From TrEMBL:
PANTHER family: UDP-GLUCOSE 6-DEHYDROGENASE TUAD (PTHR43750:SF3). NCBIfam families: NDP-sugDHase. This is UDP-glucose 6-dehydrogenase. The keyword Methyltransferase does not apply. GO terms for biological process: polysaccharide biosynthetic process; UDP-glucuronate biosynthetic process. Pathway: Nucleotide-sugar biosynthesis; UDP-alpha-D-glucuronate biosynthesis; UDP-alpha-D-glucuronate from UDP-alpha-D-glucose: step 1/1. It holds the Pfam family UDPG_MGDP_dh. It comes from Litorivivens lipolytica. Keywords: NAD, Oxidoreductase. It catalyses: UDP-alpha-D-glucose + 2 NAD(+) + H2O = UDP-alpha-D-glucuronate + 2 NADH + 3 H(+). Substrate binds at residues 155-158, 210, 255-259, 263, 327.
Length: 457
């Protein structure tokens, strides 16, 4: 089948690449000429495990191409995916301008019947707008093609995007058109051989399903972060509580990890967009507002732990930061908790030595614009970051941070504080080596009551 994908970001590029895996011919369009030129050479603009191999082999097989010309890409395409960005505006609302501008271009450029699929995350009713923009343009051109506009939200997670696309939990198809539903069923059939979970619904319901899903994930995290704070005040280890709760099948283990707050380009933005959707209808989205507020507060938690430990004296302190990406497996630093932490620490006079396996280039670029950029140093090895450090903060749970040689760390560091923003370590073990341990929702005071020793993590 011939497919055009508009947008070569995380979603567009993964969609385009994974569609070629089943033999489809895909042309991926992006407005950024440099990105397109690099992709044509097989150079990835993002770090996403497994993606490069698929892109390079699809390029070599002639199944994939990249272009800046939407017009040429959509000519005779059976399916056109819209996967451009929908960033958050200053007031929290979703900026759908790129999606609508693509809709206008499609209305002018389509040359035959097509299924237009919105993969970008868009507020309820955007699909209706896309449809009327396209139909209006087609009318002006006296073009009588049958164009169905489908909502097919994407649920991939960065760092696991290829696997999520190839073996999805579910595929949501929002359209009332029988023809469009059938075409979408045909397109996705090869991805559903082991798990035939394709759900058909109305377009508006599909748009809402995407937001409600992300809001639910965010709510679980904020809920656990609140419980974690309570645990600290009750001398309770939240990790036992998390495991105990997750063992209930009705609750499950996923997305119950307390930590440094949720980041990324989706959960923060989508929660705020959903709040705005409610407010536009005079609804008080009190649960979602609390989810968002809790998350903003959570991003300060690690700083507060450092601040309290050093009695507010952070001036001149050397702080090692392990992990900059908003989660492991990606170089994406959008809304990453590490950025808030570093900014606050530097404002308080600390010096930062940071390490991340793949996100350092993006972080270096991010801080370059700040006058204090020189106070943030990057090193090539996690162990190099801790040399002479007064404290180590673990912000992202990359696997290589999970079992460090603590005795070497102890020798390399000047101070003895470890702030474990992802609860990776065993507090009793660290205390015996001589560290002061601060997790999230555990050992707030650095004390390790004897009963903690029986916990195996
Ligand atoms: N990143 C994720 O994990 C994820 C997962 C599911 C859904 N989403 C949603 O998917 C959408 C895309 O997200 P992303 O992370 O891939 O964004 P991104 O910022 O990584 O990529 C968007 C791309 O679209 C291009 N673009 C913008 N306007 C264009 C236009 N008019 N014509 C052609 N190209 C244009 C940009 O140059 C950019 O390369 C968003 O709505 C997002 O909320 C993202
Ligand atoms: O128990 C948890 C799980 C996650 N996080 C944090 O939550 C954020 C988001 O993580 P995750 O959801 O895994 O990453 P994303 O790639 O942003 O994926 C989310 O956002 C995408 C874009 O909409 C959706 O497609 C995915 O289904 C949805 O999981 C990260 O900062 C994580 O550290 C926690 O703090 N605790």
């Amino acid at each position: 089948m011939k497919i055009a994908v508009i947008g070569a970001g995380y979603v567009g590029l993964v969609t385009a690449a994974c569609l070629t895996e089943m033999g489809n011919r895909v042309v991926c369009v992006d407005a950024a000429a440099q990105k397109v030129a690099a992709l044509k050479r097989g150079e990835m603009p993002i770090y996403e495990p497994g993606l490069e191999d698929i892109v390079v082999s699809a390029l070599n097989a002639g199944l994939l191409d990249f272009t800046t010309s939407l017009e040429s890409a959509v000519a005779s395409a059976d399916y056109v995916f819209i996967a451009v960005g929908t960033p958050m505006q200053d007031d929290g609302r979703c900026d759908t301008s790129a999606v609508l501008s693509v809709a206008r271009a499609l209305g002018q450029s389509l040359t035959d019947d097509a299924i237009v699929i919105t993969k970008s995350t868009v507020p309820v009713g955007t699909g209706d707008q896309v449809e009327s923009i396209i139909q209006e343009r087609l009318r002006l051109r006296n073009a009588a093609f049958k164009v169905d506009v489908v909502s097919n939200p994407e649920f991939l997670k960065e760092g696991a995007a290829v696997a999520d696309f190839m073996t999805p939990d579910r595929i949501i198809v929002g359209s009332d058109s029988q023809h469009a539903r059938e075409m979408m069923g045909v397109l996705y059939a090869p991805y559903l051989r082991r798990n035939d979970r394709i759900l058909y619904m109305g377009r508006r319901e599909a748009e809402m399903t995407k937001y409600a899903s992300n809001a639910m994930l965010a709510a679980r995290i904020s809920f656990m972060n609140e419980i974690a704070e309570l645990c600290e005040h009750c001398d309770v280890d939240v990790e036992d509580v998390r495991l105990g709760m997750g063992a209930d099948k009705r609750i499950g283990n996923a997305f119950l990890f307390p930590g440094a707050g949720y980041g990324g380009s989706c959960l923060p933005k989508d929660v705020r967009a959903l709040i705005a959707t409610g407010e536009d209808r005079a609804l008080d989205m009190c649960i979602l507002k609390s989810v968002d507020e809790r998350n903003q507060a959570q991003k300060r938690v690690m700083f507060d732990k450092l601040y309290r430990y050093f009695d507010g004296q952070l001036e001149g302190k050397a702080i090692a930061v392990w992990g900059l990406a908003f989660k492991p497996g990606t170089d994406d630093i959008r809304e990453a908790p590490a950025l808030n932490l570093i900014e606050k620490l530097v404002e308080a006079g600390a010096r930062i030595v940071a390490y991340d396996p793949v996100a350092m280039a993006n972080t270096r670029r991010y801080f370059a614009k700040f006058p204090y950029a020189a106070r943030v140093r990057f090193v090539d090895e996690p162990n190099a970051a801790v040399v002479g450090a007064d404290a180590l903060v673990v912000v992202t749970e990359w696997k290589r941070f999970r079992q460090p040689d603590f005795r070497s760390l102890k020798l390399a560091m000047r101070g003895r504080l470890i702030v474990d923003g992802r609860n990776l370590y065993h507090s009793g073990h660290l205390s015996r080596i001589g560290f002061d341990y601060r997790g999230v929702g555990r050992d707030n005071k650095g004390l390790n009551p004897p009963h903690r020793d029986r916990i195996t993590t």
